[in-house]
Known about the structure:
The chain is an alpha+beta fold. 25% of the residues lie in helices and 9% in strands.
Amino acid sequence: PCCWPELRPGLAYSDCFLDNLAGPVQWRAKEQCVQDISQYELSYNVSFDWVVWTRPDLRWEFPIGDIRGFRSSHIYAPLSANTDLSDLVALVPRRMAATYAGAFRDT
């Protein structure tokens, strides 16, 4: 993408795909979230097994089910026809959270 992790030289944000205009901000927020989770785990001597990302404008109509039924070797996210990764919701094993959040980083 032309706008991630930063705008490429010689391009304007209007050169990016319409669905990528907010993408860099959303994925940077996920990276910050991983940092916050790590700091919380260190501060309180706890660890999480899963991270759930969801957009704040979504409304849950039903529970996701028993968390023990999900495989810790998988990332669960809806299929999106027009983007590589959906920004709606994701259930991610904690050990994969940084990789998932940094999916659009060049390095």
